[in-house]
Design a protein that fits this description.
This protein has about 180 residues and is mainly β. It has four helices and eleven strands; from the N terminus they run E-E-H-E-H-E-E-E-E-E-E-H-E-H-E. It has a domain at about 25-100 and about 110-130 and about 170-175. It has helices spanning about 40, 55-60, 120-125, 140-150, and strands spanning about 20-25, 25-30, 50-55, 65-70, 70-80, 80-85, 95-100, 105-110, 115, 130-140, 165-170. The protein is globular. The relative contact order is 0.22.
Length: about 180
């Protein structure tokens, strides 16, 4: 089934530098949200983060679990790989999702999920200490996420269990 995406051209009216902020033990480049930029100017995105996460015992064992509700998370692995946990398993149980380089993870939060449990825990168990994953986290509102995902190419192996977390192969391929 073909998906039609309505687009409208916009004029560039404002360019601002992103800020670097600490988050869950990492320095994150936060492009959105930025003070003074109304949501109507950045729609369909409400958050854009980029970070390089070093896989260490401290990172994997740090309690980074936090709640999300009412939007979709799109997490794209630019380089490296990383794993994370979400309460999207049967009955709200935690399940693991692993993003290999070039993969896209979609998590539909709905009425609420816990997110980012044990970042890199699986890589650490595989002996990949000191490796890095560079990723991009996009947070579009739910109405636009399906259209974005439908253009993401073939689907990769999803996490185990029945959930709303889905892994996809990116149309942009591997980048280095």
């Amino acid at each position: 089934m073909a998906t039609q995406v309505d687009t409208a051209q916009r004029q560039i009216v404002l360019v601002k530098d992103a800020r670097i902020r600490p988050m869950m033990g990492n320095l994150v480049l936060e492009s959105l949200p930025l003070a003074g930029i109304p949501y109507s100017m950045v729609d369909p995105y409400i958050l854009v983060h980029e970070a390089t996460i070093k896989i260490t015992p401290e990172q994997a064992n740090q309690d980074t679990t936090h709640p999300h509700r009412g939007f979709d998370n799109l997490w794209y692995a630019i380089t490296g790989s990383s794993s994370t946990g979400h309460s999207t398993g049967p009955g709200g149980t935690m399940e693991r999702a692993k993003l290999e380089e070039g993969s896209l993870l979609k998590v539909r939060t709905g009425r609420g999920v816990l997110h980012a449990e044990g970042l890199g825990k699986d890589e650490l168990a595989e002996g990949k200490i000191g490796t890095e994953m560079r990723g991009l986290l996009l947070r579009p509102p739910r109405r636009s996420c399906s259209a974005l995902i439908s253009r993401s190419g073939t689907r990769a192996t999803p996490p185990s269990g029945h959930s709303s977390a889905k892994a996809h192969r990116s149309p942009w391929g591997r980048q280095g």
